[in-house]
């Protein structure tokens, strides 16, 4: 008897048309977040496309098309008598919670996904063989951090058994984590480290807008290969969110962890939050973000470890694992507390 599973029936109304329209709706969700349409639907419960376009200086046909695409995805519902009026839809609340995942996929990673046929060919996989928008990914990750990782991050922060005055954030993105720490510890100073200059610029602007720009410096560097620096010797709290998988594969990860131990000799706690590769989840039951995250990294050639693989490298890398806190979304996401 064959052990191949019978395909599960697709949800009602999906099929090729449903898949196609859902793709358009995904792009619309990310754009609607940027222009404020998702917030308008949540706050007002019904939105007139012409009024919204006029208020935000938007092209009216494009605005109508945006709301139409949202309606196709159940994010809003077109009024039966006024075709330019859109009401809150049944999917709005859940889509709003996951809006940054749509942004990460359709704007931040658009260059990669639109170029998949070329990227697949071995002959083309040399140099910078794929494109992603680092600033857009940083923008999305700030929201993902806030809604997914923040609850466990604050649990860990309030559980610290030491005082700290200097912090470093690895892969600092658009600066959201540093801004949070600045608010939590008004006397703290620190450094944000990232490889992308556009991202560093965005982080610097964000911290300046928060009124704490003078308390933080930035270093454009590869966190996987950091050399000791006098600035790093002051650091007592080290954080890293949503980029730990870039340390892998295994031997490279162990080497990177050891270098971090040398570069930050006085760190008392290392908070490492990341999303791991899932296992045992049927293809048609992948939770939000998982399929996009794993597909993107496979195409980029970035190894994604499982949670079990993660837990097997800390001791060899010179770190002790004190606690593992579960992040509920994305799937198989955690916060490791290391010293």
Structural commentary:
The protein is of the alpha/beta class and 339 residues long. Strand 2 and strand 3 form a beta hairpin. The strands form two sheets. The protein has a seven-stranded mixed β-sheet, with helices on one face. It has helices at residues 15-35, 37-44, 49-56, 60-72, 92-97, 99-108, 110-114, 116-120, 134-158, 176-184, 197-209, 250-263, 290-300, 307-311, and strands spanning 46-48, 76-78, 85-88, 166-170, 189-194, 216-220, 237-241, 269-275, 321-327, 333-338. The protein starts with 14 loop residues before the first helix and ends with a strand. Mean pLDDT is 93; it is low at 1-12. 45% of the residues lie in helices and 15% in strands. It contains 14 helices and ten strands.
How are the elements arranged and paired?
Elements lengths: L14 H21 L1 H8 L1 E3 H8 L3 H13 L3 E3 L6 E4 L3 H6 L1 H10 L1 H5 L1 H5 L13 H25 L7 E5 L5 H9 L4 E6 L2 H13 L6 E5 L16 E5 L8 H14 L5 E7 L14 H11 L6 H5 L9 E7 L5 E6 L1
Parallel strand pairs: 4-5, 4-7, 5-6, 7-8
Antiparallel strand pairs: 1-3, 2-3, 8-10, 9-10
Question: Which short descriptors sum up this protein?
Answer:
339 residues; alpha/beta; 15% strand
Structural class: alpha/beta
Biggest sheet: strand arrangement: 6-5-4-7-8-10-9
Main sheet overview: 7 strands, mixed
Number of strands: 10
Shape: globular
Separation of termini? 51 Å
Radius of gyration: 22 Å
Which series of helices and strands comes N to C? HHEHHEEHHHHHEHEHEEHEHHEE
> Approximately how much beta-strand content do the residues carry?
15-25%
Sequence stretches where pLDDT stays below 50 over 5 or more residues: 1-12
Q: What does the average pLDDT come to?
A: 93
The percent range for helix content is 40-55%
